[in-house]
UniProtKB/TrEMBL annotation:
It comes from the Eukaryota. This is Germ cell-less protein-like 2. InterPro entries: Gcl-like. Keywords: Developmental protein. The lineage of its organism: Eukaryota, Metazoa, Chordata, Craniata, Vertebrata. The gene is LOC101993525.
C-alpha cells in the first residue's frame, strides 16, 4: 500500500489505514494529500475527501499552497460544490465557474444568513473556520469576494479586522518587531503561499500581505533564493527598526504523472532584517533541479 499511493487509491487507503490502525500508511496518504490537493486538483479526488479529512488538511501548515490563502478558500468552495452536487460532471477547470453560479442562485433564496449558517451548510463550518482569514482580508478584491459569496458568516471577520488593524498600528509605532522564537503559533498562524517556476531564470515575488507589515521581496536567481527587506514609507520617513521573520521554504518537482521526483526544505528558520537588507536564505549549488519547479513558503511575521 505504501508503494502504491495514487490519486485513485489515496482516500480508500487512508480510510482503511484509519480503520485498521496502519499508522505508516495513514501518514503517507495524508502527506500525499498535503502535497497534491492544490497542486494537482481533481474532481474525483475532491469527491472522495470527507469533512473530517478536509479539516485536517486545511489545518496543516504543511499544506502545499500555490499562490496564497485565498486559493485555499477557492479550493474549499469547489470541494463544497462537488459535495452538494454529486451528479455534476465536467473538467476540473470548470468547477469554479459552476460553483460560483450555483452558490449565487442558492443565496438568492436566502435573505439574511450566510450559507454556512444554513441547515445545509452547518456541517461545513468547522472546515471553513480553519482558513487563515488574516491573510485574506489584506487584499481588497479577495475581501470583496468573501462578502459577495456570502458563504462564510461576516461575523467571523470582525475580530480579525480589529486584530490586524491593531497589529498594523503597533508595527508602525515600533512596538512590534516580529517573532523571536519558533513556537507552536507557527502551525496555526503562518502565512502559506507558493508559486511555480516553468523554467530556469530570475524571478521575484511579493504577496498582498506586504501591506500588513510583511516587507519582503523573494527572488529566485542563480540557484539561490534571496529575501530582500523593503519597508513601506510612513509620513515621509522610512521605518528603520529591526524586523524578525520566521520562514520555511519547500521545493518540490513533479513528473508528468504527478509523482514527486525531488523535494527539499530549509526547515523552520528565523531571519533578522534591517532596512533594505538582502540575505540569501537557500542555496541550491550542486543540486540537479528539473522544471517546472514548485516553491512553497511558510511565513510568520
Amino acid at each position: 500500500m505504501n508503494s502504491n499511493i495514487t490519486r485513485e487509491t489515496v482516500c480508500s487507503y487512508y480510510t482503511a489505514a484509519e480503520t485498521y490502525g496502519l499508522k505508516s500508511v495513514k501518514t503517507r496518504c495524508f502527506d500525499w494529500l498535503l502535497c497534491h490537493l492544490m497542486t494537482h486538483p481533481s474532481v474525483e479526488l475532491y469527491r472522495e475527501i470527507d469533512t473530517k479529512l478536509m479539516y485536517r488538511l486545511i489545518c496543516s501548515a504543511d499544506l502545499l499552497v500555490l499562490q496564497k490563502e485565498m486559493d485555499i478558500y477557492t479550493t474549499l468552495k469547489e470541494w463544497l460544490f462537488l459535495c452538494l452536487n454529486p451528479s455534476w460532471k465536467g473538467p476540473v477547470k470548470e468547477i469554479l465557474v459552476n460553483a460560483n453560479r450555483w452558490l449565487s442562485k442558492h443565496m438568492e433564496r436566502v435573505d439574511s444568513i450566510s450559507f454556512l449558517e444554513s441547515e445545509e451548510g452547518l456541517i461545513y463550518q468547522r472546515v471553513f473556520k480553519k482558513l487563515r482569514f488574516q491573510h485574506i482580508i489584506c487584499d481588497v478584491g479577495d475581501t470583496a469576494t468573501l462578502e459577495r459569496d456570502r458563504l462564510i458568516p461576516l461575523e467571523w471577520l470582525a475580530p480579525i479586522y480589529k486584530r490586524q488593524w491593531l497589529a498594523l498600528l503597533q508595527e508602525q509605532e515600533h512596538m512590534e518587531i516580529g517573532p523571536r522564537i519558533i513556537s507552536e503559533e507557527l502551525e496555526d498562524c503562518c502565512m502559506r503561499c507558493g508559486t511555480m517556476i516553468r523554467r530556469d531564470g530570475k524571478y521575484s515575488w511579493k504577496w498582498s500581505d506586504v501591506r500588513f507589515s510583511f516587507p519582503i521581496t523573494v527572488t529566485f536567481t542563480n540557484r539561490h533564493i534571496i529575501f530582500r527587506e523593503s519597508r513601506q514609507q510612513y509620513d515621509g520617513c522610512w521605518l528603520k527598526h529591526v524586523r524578525y521573520i520566521v520562514f520555511k521554504i519547500t521545493l518540490v518537482c513533479f513528473d508528468s504523472n504527478g509523482r514527486v521526483t525531488f523535494s527539499q526544505t530549509t526547515g523552520h528558520k528565523i531571519v533578522t532584517f534591517e532596512h533594505n537588507e538582502e540575505q540569501i536564505v537557500m542555496k541550491l549549488d550542486g543540486v540537479v533541479l528539473s522544471f517546472p519547479l514548485c516553491i512553497f513558503f511558510n511565513f510568520l511575521f
